[in-house]
Each structure stands twice: as C-alpha cells, then as structure tokens.
Design the sequence.
C-alpha cells in the first residue's frame, strides 16, 4: 500500500465575510473534500452546516451561494487559521510548517467581536499564532473524525454562536 506524502498547500479559497460580520468561525485548514468543492466544510459528513441550520432554524442548501448568503444574513464570517502548511490528506495531526492568515487585517474590515474555533487543532494553532486581541472560544470539531460528539451535542455547544450574536453590542 502506497503511503500518502505530505504536500505544501496554500489555502485555496477566500474568507467569507462582509463589513457587517460580527462573528468569525475559524477551522484549521480545508479538508481534501473542501478543497475539491472549493468551500468551507465541504465533506458530506461534516456537520457544520447541519449545526448552523439547527441553531438558526433554517434549511441551508448544499449550494455555495446559499451558504454564503446564510453567513452574510447572520453576520457570520468563515475562515481558517492556516494560510499555508505541509499536510498529508486531511489529517490535522500531519500539519507542519504553518503560516497563519492575517486575522487583524480581517478584523479591521468588519465588526467582528468574537472568534469561535472549530475544533481543538484550530484552537491550539490560534492560541500559538493568532496574535490578535479578541475574545474567543474553542468549540468541538464538526468534522466526521470527531465521532464522539453527536449532532445534538454540537448544536447545544454551537448555540453559543447565536447567543453572542443576540447580545447587544
């Protein structure tokens, strides 16, 4: 069996945000499937979009423009911690030679007041390299690799996103 080798990759698609974004949700780096579909949380078993739909009581269709529209209508920005890295497939454990995205540059263009990290790897990387003065919370990963968390658990945990959005500025 041929062993997969790591490759150096640059983040393949832009952040989703607009000037009205109030929440930033950061993953670590796009999975192989997300890179194939050229958008965030593209693996069919990733529960991110199901969780967001449950929290906001909406159906989010499997269409990139619909997902972007959902994010804009709820003032949610999406991005990843990593700008470039060496990675094998989709394995967070294989990530090396990390260069991070310019969070402060994005924050200056928006009304973001809280950052949520999708998973422990994103959280660790943000804490190590983040270099921005912003309130943040590390949430459980919505990845299919995180089989320990059931959809209901994730919906409860990610409810914090809506709570922060509902708070007065």
Sequence:
């Amino acid at each position: 069996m041929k062993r997969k080798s790591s490759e150096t990759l640059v983040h393949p698609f832009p952040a989703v945000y607009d000037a009205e974004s109030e929440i930033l949700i950061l993953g670590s780096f796009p999975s192989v499937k997300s890179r194939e579909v050229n958008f965030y949380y593209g693996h069919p078993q990733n529960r991110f979009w199901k969780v967001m739909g449950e929290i906001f009581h909406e159906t989010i269709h499997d269409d990139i423009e619909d997902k972007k529209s959902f994010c804009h209508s709820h003032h949610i920005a999406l991005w990843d911690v990593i700008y470039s890295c060496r990675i094998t497939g989709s394995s967070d454990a294989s990530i090396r030679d990390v260069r991070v995205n310019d969070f402060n540059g994005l924050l200056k263009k928006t009304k973001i007041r809280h950052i949520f990290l999708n998973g422990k790897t994103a959280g660790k990387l943000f804490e190590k390299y983040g270099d921005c003065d912003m309130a943040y919370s590390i949430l459980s990963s919505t990845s299919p690799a995180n089989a320990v968390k059931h959809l209901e658990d994730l919906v409860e945990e990610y409810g914090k996103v809506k709570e922060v959005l509902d708070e007065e500025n």
About this structure: The chain is about 35% helix and 20% strand. The helical segments are 32-37, 48-56, 64-73, 103-108, 120-129, 151-166.
